[in-house]
Amino acid sequence: MLDAFIIEEIKRRERERTDDDRPVVELPLPQPREPAHQDDERPDDSERDRRGVVIIDYSG
Fold this sequence. Notes:
Helices cover 42% and strands 0% of the residues. It is mainly α. The mean pLDDT is 77.
């Protein structure tokens, strides 16, 4: 009869083997933008980039 530790180790290895066989979805992530220099940019342009409005119409 096998020791409980050995049985658990066999189960763990079997789980790892099945986890590695699963397909992985890779999403194309956008590259982070480089920080703009404060001297090159007008203050109102940077403020416009940081805010926005989202309208959701549920009446459809």
